[in-house]
Amino acid sequence: MTLGAPLGLGSGLCWGTADFFGGVQSRRLPALSVALWSQAAGALALALGLAIQGTRPTPAGFAWGLAAGAGSGLALMLFYRGLAEGAMSVVAPVAACGAVVPVLVAPLRGELPSAVAGLGIVAAVAGVVLVSRSPDPRQHPGGEPARVLAMALGAALGFGLFFVFIDAGTATAGASPLWVVAGARTSSLLVLVGIALAGRRSEAGWPGRRIVPVALVGIADTTANLLFALAATSGNLAVVGVLGSLYPVATVVLARWLLRERLSGSQNAGVVLALTGVGLLAAG
Fold first, then answer.
1. pLDDT for 232-246, tens place per residue?
2. Is the separation of the CB atoms in 89 and 271 below 8 Å?
3. How far is it, in rounded angstroms, from Cα 51 to Cα 179?
4. Distance in angstroms (rounded) separating the CA atoms of residues 2 and 6
5. Which of 152, 178, 206, 224 has the smallest set of CB atoms within 10 Å of its CB?
6. What pTM, to 2 d.p., does this model score?
């Protein structure tokens, strides 16, 4: 038995848990602060992993990582803000639909999407349409429904491009997945610092006594990245991809359990459709 499946499932659970608690902290702190300091904590954990591994980076792989992180830093801030202002049970599945992006980009590389992937796109889009129907204002304690949906879709685009560039980086000859992820973490931190210096310094302030839970969010996110990288090299990538893509399930379950979030019947159907679409996209 290979470790690919349990490692892939572990990555999904870590991502989903990090997303939930990142959203919780973003309801108490500015989203930029949570994104910046969690990414910094994750970078320290990643540096430790690289030191233990003892490998050197390949310039091409690290460069692809830098490209991946350029948009993921902003996407993460949008995602946390969306989780803070809207229902996590809605925002997480919509953001996960970023899995559509690699499928749409594939023809540019001469790879036509399979019928399963095409069905996944239809299911994901239908799910987004259904979950966006939120007549209950209590689902959006801090923002307008259209604003929350826009942030979730922006996060989806950034996350989708992240996976496109990470895939290109890890496919580079001799590239270490850890160094590709390190490149992404470097540029995402630079983007977040740039946003703070451009006029949001007060929103990027030190989290104070909340630094521990914020740091744990970043460490959990980095752990998920490492588990996924290890799973992809030790198991069937199709299986690993499906298991890793199930991370919104953990976020939704925690939101229902700990925050008592409730959705309408059509929104529940939309969540199921969106998650099904993500699974089909990963399998296709």
1. 666 555 566 666 777
2. yes
3. 11
4. 9
5. 206
6. 0.85
